[in-house]
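If your schedule permits, I should be very grateful for your opinion on a structural question. Thank you for your consideration; the sequence and its tokens are set out here:

===
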Amino acid sequence: MKSPAFDITKRIARLFATAYVVCFSLLVLVNLLPIEPFKENVLSTLSDVNYTSHPFIQGLSLDHFTECISLTIGIRSSAAAQSNETILTRAIVDAALSPTLGHCERIAEGEVSASTYYRYWHGAQVISRPVLTIATVPTLRFIVACAFLSALGFMLYAITRTTGRTAAISAGIIIAVSPIYSQLLLIPHAASWIIGCIGAGHILLSPRKDLHTNIVRFALIGILVAYFDLLNNPIVALTAALMAVTLRRIHDRREARIDEIVLLSAVWLFAYGGFWCLKWFTASAVLGGEVVWQTVYNQIAFRLNGDTTWHDVGVWTSIEKNFWFMRYCALAALIVSVITVILTLQRNSIPFWTYQCYATLQLVSQLLVVALLPVAWLLTLQNHSIVHHWFVAPILTISLICDVLAVQLFVRRAAKRRS
């Protein structure tokens, strides 16, 4: 008789194999699309406006760097494109190596050679390339914004159904105040938020809540994040999904399970890292393993604690940059917590301590553990968190939501016990 562990391992292996075939095939297909209409539509939006140090999206103008890296994936320079490869061979190679011009203005400069950006999957191009073949960048941004807001709305609706309107309104206020700029419009930055919010909503509303089902869900979430994200906000998807698992336990009156949080986090990390590695193996088949893996090693070392041009790398710098960027969101979370506590105590007697409070404290502790994951991410990837703090810091939004929900849970249950 096969053990449950063997069955779940087989399901995840099948999921990996299927995801690899589907994801790589989609990259090949979009690289078969004609380049000229795509170039024309991207260049039509090009302007001299770039992100400032406080990166509000400035109208409908196109960012020269962050956005153009993702939008020019799959475009070679004119010299590289004039090879003797067949169209299909070129599409397969481009799907494996992810050439990019890096800057949109280079689309019109045939003498500039493309760089290979093979260390990421760049799955966002399966959406951006077809859209930009027939439409312009504002249209793509509108689609991303609709998907982003719909995913957030779905998660808030699920929280309303399972945890209550107060929790959903509190989460909505924190999200509204959060400095979410590029995540709203740029598909590589929005991807992890969309995946995480949809995953969280599904976990909250689905009748299936067993551990094996959640393991498969977290593996799928990890694979999708590895495919669509560029190391921008991957931890958001994990944090949102774990928050949903905890809220579902609270709704079902089940006890806290920190070990479940650890296991699901490990599954997500394995799926995220493992599927990411498959892209490196794919690139190695074209360029050779030594070139690819040396680049990968250098990038990992650099993103963890490599030097930056403008800032000293360290724990304190990472905390200062990211926490200060989120100061208004943190203030909003504090105000929401105080208001909900006051309203709860007006309707009930002052909470008092009983032995049964330990069960509530365990659930509160589980929410707080989930809230610490983005903080750990910031402190681990110090270089990345400092250089890109303007789009990395908003990962703390989910942490603040968990903190507020933890306060509301404790006060509500303690006060109800007295009434």
The radius of gyration is 23 Å. Residues 4-135 form one domain. The longest strand covers residues 99-100.
